[in-house]
Amino acid sequence: MAVVESKMAVAKNVLRVSMNFIGRPFGGDVSRASGKKNQVCNRASLAFSGLPMVLIGILYWSMTNKISDEDFAATGWLSTLPDPVRGSVLEKARWRTFGPGDTVYASGAAGNTLWGIGSGTIKMYISAGEEHMRFCHAVGPGYWFGELELLLDLPRVIEMRTAGNARLLCLQEQDLNKIAEEYPALWRAVARLAATNEALAIAAVDDLMLRDPRKRLAATLLRLSGLRWDFQGKRDLPVVPVTLVELAEVANLSRSVAAKLVAEFVAEGMVAKEYGRLRIDRPDRLELVLQS
After folding, report:
1. pTM of the predicted model, to two decimals?
2. Who is most buried in 25, 111, 214, 272, counting CB within 10 A?
3. What is the DSSP letter of 66?
4. Please, what is the end-to-end C-alpha distance for the chain in angstroms?
């Protein structure tokens, strides 16, 4: 079902882009535009002639934001497991596909699964209880999560949502227990996974205590792209799916300050703005901001 919905979502997005392209030059009442019929026909022709490029862009993003099953097994936490254990995990776990904006699991849900990202980007949301769910991090291929609640037998404290199409490996608690019966050291590996994610959380808090807003934003962007405080050895994210509102929240900045600093970073060639996301073009310059 998720696969069908994701395909429908792609089709709708392509149609929306095409219709926006056709309608954009008019702005107001099309009926009053001179030569409206020819203009509409010409715009429609241009839009649909450019449709293959839209599709190519979508396909390129889907292809580059994933890793093969072989690379997946050799990346991050999974690669630290002994060969027999890694093989058992891959044998018992099941791949699941999600469409854009799907919830992998919600805050408060049962915490009885372990997840690994094969393709796509997952956005984390958290709430202290008295606030709305707020964006706090983004992770991509090779990253594993879900171990905290599994170890502590707690409901989910973080909500995980897809930024686009995603393919995730899901290991159920009962299957993990079966593997651990033969390989007891697996639980130590899961505890080590929890420690890496705890270290990331502590490092993120440390970054948020930077007093200089420019440094705080630079540190946040590097963390979101996986170039700062990566304790799992996963792939980095050169394109971060984050809106200005989300970026302001995750960097603990006002929207106006966040907008001003992003504009500065764009002007200095460090990042580029895309719809609903930021592309990290010069992480080395973001590092220099932190060192200044």
Report:
1. 0.76
2. 111
3. B
4. 50
